[in-house]
Every structure is written in C-alpha cells, then in structure tokens.
Amino acid sequence: MIKRIILLSLFFVFAFVNLGTAQTKVSGIVLDKSNQPVPFANIVFKGSNTGIVSNEDGRFYLESPNTYTALLVTSAGFSDKEVPLEKAVNYNFKIVLFEEQVLNEVVIYTGKTSKKNNPALDILRKIWERKRKNGLYQFNQYQMQKYEKVEFDMNTIDSALMKNKLFKGMEFVFDHVDTSDVTGKTYLPIFINESVYDVYGDNKLKKVKENLTGNKMSGFNGNQQILSFVKDLYSDYNIYDNHLKFFDKSFTSPLSRTGIDVYNYVLKDSAYIDKKWCYNIVFYPRRKNELTFKGDFWVNDSTFAIKKINMGVTKSANINWVKDIYIEQEFEVENDSVFLLTRDYMMSDFALNKKEKSKGVYGKRTTLYRNHKFNIQKPEKFYKEEVNFIDNAVYDRPPEFWEENRFEKLNKDEAGIYKMLDTLQTVKRFKQLYSLVSILGSGYVEFKNFDFGPIFSTFGYNEVEGLRIRAGGRTYFGPNDPWRVQAYTAYGFNDNKFKYGVSGKWMVDKKNRIIISGGNRRDIEQIGASLTTTNDILGRSFASSALFTTSSNGKLTNINLSNVSFEIEAKKNFIIQTGFSYRTLESASPTFSLDYYSTLPSPENPAGVIQSKVRQSEANIQFEYMPNRKTIGYGVERDLVDSPFSHFFVNFSYGLKGVFESDFAYEKIQIYYKQPIIIGPLGRTDIIVETGKTFGTIPLGLMSVVPGNQTYWTIENTFSNLNFYEFVTDQYTTLQWQHNFQGRLFARVPFMRKLNWREFVGIKAVHGTISDANRAINASGQPYNAPENVYWEYNAGIGNIFKVFRIDFSWRGNYLNMPDANKFAVKGSFGFYF
C-alpha cells in the first residue's frame, strides 16, 4: 500500500498552468433562499444533454466545447431555474433556488425520496430485469479492439508553486497549461501510458482474453512500480454490477439491486438521444460517509439499457487520499437495439486532504472500444492464459502503429508529455528527486547494475546480538532480469559475530518460468515465527530484529541453512517447486536450549545421550496456487498488483536421515489457505486456515511452534497474546478470521462520522497435539505445552487514525492460568490506505 503514496509523491515535483480551449465554462454554487447549499442539484446546458450534479456543498463546474447561452438548474422540491450565460467563461456563479409551490398532480421529493410510488424506481426495476440481456451479454461470443490511455496530472497550479525552489532547473515544464473539463482546475500532464488490446469473450464459457498488441509509456519505460500502481489503480468494472471495486473498496453501484437502500432516485427528464427515447434519472446518497455516488443516467425506454451515465463519489465518502472520483460512460446503439459501451472515462483527484483548494494529482483513464464482431466461436484452449507474456516488440511500436491504432488523437499537451519527460530525465535536479522517491519505494539505492539494500533492514536488536547492523545488495540490470544474485552481511555488537547470506536464481525457461535457485545463510533467527515454513535463504523474521519488544526475545537459534530448488509455473499462477535443503540448528543463547536425547533413557543408560546440535537434510515438494493474482513484468522476480487474491499452498517434506550425517527421518505435510472476501458495503473479510502434521520423531528445533508476537506491532499469522514457544506442536490446525467494516458502523454515529475511522474485528484459534515419542526425547528444559483444548483469542481495532495508524486490542480467550499468560495486548501498525 505504501508504494501508492510514495509514487504519487513523485508527481508533486511537476507543474504548469494554462488556459483551456473549451467554448463554454461555468462554475459556481447552488443555494436555497436561506443561503444554504443545495446538494446534488442537476445543472445542464440548455438544449443539450451535457450536465453535472452539484456536490454536497452545492458547488459545480461544467464545461463544453460547444457554445451555450443558458443553464437549467433543477433539484427535487425546488422550482426549475434558467440562468442566462452572458459570456463564454462564467466563474463563481451564485444560483438561488426557491421551493416548488405548484403541487397539482406532481410528486415532489424532498430530502429522502420515497421507496413507493416513485416512477424512477419502476424504471430501475426494468433495468435489473434486462441487465443480463443487454450489450455484450446478448451474444454467445464477441470480439473487439480496445484502446486505453492512463494519464497523471499535477493540479491546482499557482504562482507560488511555480516559484518553488524545488523546481530549480526544471522551469521549462511550466511552458504549457490546461484546464480540467470536470473540475475547472489547471493541471500539468506528467505521465501517460497507452495500450492497445484485441479482446475476445465467450459468455457460454465465461471466459475473456485480452491480447496486448502495443504499449507506450512516457518517461518511465520499464519502471515496474509505476506500472503496478497504474494496474492496481484502475481495475475493470461493470456499471451493471451491484458493487464496483475501486481502491480496494466496494462502492454500491447506482444500478444495484440494493441501491434503493442507499440512494435517492428522481425521474427528472426524458428526451431523444441518437434517435432513441430515453429517461433521465438523478441519484444521490441517502446517508453521508458511505461508499456511494452522486450523478445521473439516461436509459432507453424499450431495452432499458443505459445510454449514458455520469457519477462522482461524494465528498464525505470514507476514502483516504482521494478527493474526487468521476466516472463517465457512453453507449452507442448497434443494430437498432444493442447498446454497446464505446467510451469509459474515469478521473480521480488524489490529495492529502479534501479541501477545495488543496493541491493534488489527477489520475485519468480513458478506455475506448470499436470494431465489434459477434458469434465467432473460439476453442476453449484459446482462452488459456499465458504463464509469462514476453513480446518486446509490443513495447517498441513505431509512430506509424500509434497513428493507426489510437482511437482518438492525443491533444497537444498529451503529445508533449513524451518529449517533456525525455528532456526532464536529463536534468540533474530531477534525477536526484526521482532517485529519492525510488529509494523510498523499493528500499534500494540504485547504482549501475547493482542495488544497495534493503535499507529498512539496516538496524535491528535482540538480546543475543544486541544492536545489529546489516548491509546487502542485489544485481539489477533491469526489471526483467532473467537472473539475480543477492547477498548480505550483518554484525552483532553483543556477540561480536559476523553473519551472512547469499542466494541466486536463474530463469532457464521464460515461457514456463522454470527457475533454478540456491544459496546459503549463517545467521541468528527466531525459528517458529510462522507455522507454514519455507526455505527462503534471505528471509528474516521481524521477531528477531524488532528494536522494541514486549518481553524477552532471547530464545534464538544459530542457523546454517543451504538449499537448492527447481520450480515451474505449470499454468498461470500455479507453481510447482521441489528442492533439497541442509541445515544445522543450535541455541544462540545460554538461557535457551534445543537439547534432545539422541538415545532414549534405558536401564543400562539412565541419562540417555543428550545432543545440542541438530543436523538435518530434507527434500520437499510444494504446490502453490493463486487464482486471480496479477503480476507485472516477466523477469525472474516480478511485482504484484496490489489487489486481493486467493492463496492455496501445500508442502510435503521428507527428513533424510543419514544424508550428510542428518539426524532424523520424518514426513511432514503443511497446508495453507487464505481467502479474501469483499462483502459489498459491509467491508472485507480475510479467512486463513493452516494445518500440518509431522510423522516421525523430531526434537524441538524441528517442531511446529505456534507463532507468538512479542513486538508492539500487528503481524499477520501470529497470535498477539502468545509469547515465543508458549505452545509447541507436531500436529496443528489454526483458523483466523479478520473483518474490516471500512467505517460502515462509525458512519451511523453522528459525532464520529467526520473522523472517518474504520472498525476491525477478528478471532484466532489453534488446536495442536504432541506425540509421546516427541515428548520423550525432549531434553531442552522447555515445557512442551500443546493447545489440546483449542487456544483462542479475539481482537477489535480502530483503523485510519490520522489516515495512517491502526490500533488493535486483543484479549486472550482461555489458558489464562499459564505462567506469564498475557491476558490483554495492544498492538499497532502504520500504513497508507485508501
């Protein structure tokens, strides 16, 4: 999440101002006779279908390339008003409406509209009945071309910003200016990305495939994080769906079957549009702070298909860093009755606050469709998604390709972005600013073919090492490197020892993502910090590096781990990996022991033979499936698009006794499953299930330790009220449920609405056992307690405090009488969330 805000901060280093070219511009405020704002009033140019709905403060901005001489202003419960326009540009209009006096056979809706005897709702019900029979859904198969343009613009430019020392040496970016036709603010285009696709769909198979045929990005070619940010920012949506997902939040669509409960609807007008008789319906929220829109739509009177819709997110919506979201869709009629989406425009205004004059960044996406073809059947295998899309020519199309495949020409400012950013990247001042933002976003300091970092792991602390410093780096020739080597070294000032880790991976087959990897690490680690373990050489638990902890974090282990592995992505997002590892484990602290009996006590040998060091060879095979996961790039390491997806993981491990003097033979199975669920307006639920069992006799160092959390921070997959090694198992099952109401409850409490806090609740539980054989070889002095009666804890939290902080309160549900039982815990976390 943090990369979103970090990347946006980059855009704040650009700016310029200009006059627009539109013929008619109007801005102002709509008031009633007592001088109070009239929210959600409908403002249109007289004699046109071009209009907008005022915001909660009654303010509006309207623009058209055509010349108009009057506005029509209407609102439920008020008399219509015609406002003459004496000039082409009219700013700061004050329009006063008066209450409707004539009631003869006219239904007047004031405030909340009725759910009965409302003609707008009769039309809405017809839309519901036909929504799966309109547009592309009328055909078994469809094909079309798609052009997508994503642009970022710095907005609300003023002279003070232009004179800021930040722009010294970059003044040439102020040579041009433009004005938003949605908000009327000046802006500077600073980034543009264009893509062209061939789209194929099969409604019977419920399959859609998009083939990228061209991509062009200004100034930042190959920057994975910006691409990831853009892909995450603008996910696809269908206006007919009940809920629309933007910025990881679920907004109720005005066409939703549940829209009656959250929207007011008013039938305002009817007219011919492209020779089709259509009704105009205005909608606005019933309550504040909910994730809803305001706007209007035109719907055909026979097919009840949407012809045009405009909507914007209300100012009070509980969403961070976004001041405005504006959506506009247009549909064209084909074959007299088929309404097809031809233009989809979305604009977001990102800002630190929602004040009218605050500076921010526009993010705009324009998607155009053309050349529709229908009922051309393709075999099912045609829709199989490629594991690793690689076609460098797609990213290097000549100018002739774009002249032919742009559905609409770039305006002069958009066309100038490419040249401006190419020039900007030669400016020393800009390169310094860009490097700073890149370091914050990736955690690495970039040099030629080498990155130093991650810098956020430089310092740590634990009772064994004391203050710990770490330095490392990785090879980096580009975002799509087929191989990469990483290494680090660390030093503890208490134990006066150097540690290190080195690993490498090589993608030997790009098409199927066949990757060979290996490495070695000698370090101090908190084993048992997670149940579902991996053999990640450079991975390190926060548990052994936290600068501050709630109690002793001295139960640490010296680990020497080597491994080699082979993996293949057999199909998209389905990965099979097999490998071999060898590790030695030994206590790193005199107050903590991993001792075990290598020979059990007997009458001939009452004491048994105690060993302090574990040597273990292990082979494993694992399967990982992540449906709907989206990735950026095709190198040996890829970035993820930050959107929720299911995660299913299975690992089989085999202890190889005698191989390299390995001590134990065993079999282990581990299963992990995570399922995020968006529950419409009720928020998001995450369910995590883990289970595992070890067959065979093993010591403490190889047991499954229920992960505790002795830090002050919230860590997923750990138990907030448990200490390290409080519960040990060789067979376990855990269940975690966490739900984010996203402010739905607090929005109903008047004095809490403005805080925009968000509510979290959750529960975690674990059941586990230990075999008698494993208990018998324990010589560590560590008590073997297993949660045989199901340990559980529950939590409640408040998020979005000052937009960046979350605090969780956690209560222990049982096992209250155990030594040093932590009955209540408070954890916090920081993050940048929308």
From TrEMBL:
This is Carboxypeptidase-like protein. Gene3D superfamilies: Carboxypeptidase-like, regulatory domain. It comes from Flavobacterium cutihirudinis. GO terms for molecular function: carboxypeptidase activity. InterPro entries: CarboxyPept-like_regulatory (IPR008969), DUF5686 (IPR043741). Residues 1-22 form the signal peptide. Keywords: Carboxypeptidase, Hydrolase, Protease, Signal. The lineage of its organism: Bacteria, Pseudomonadati, Bacteroidota, Flavobacteriia, Flavobacteriales. It holds the Pfam family DUF5686.
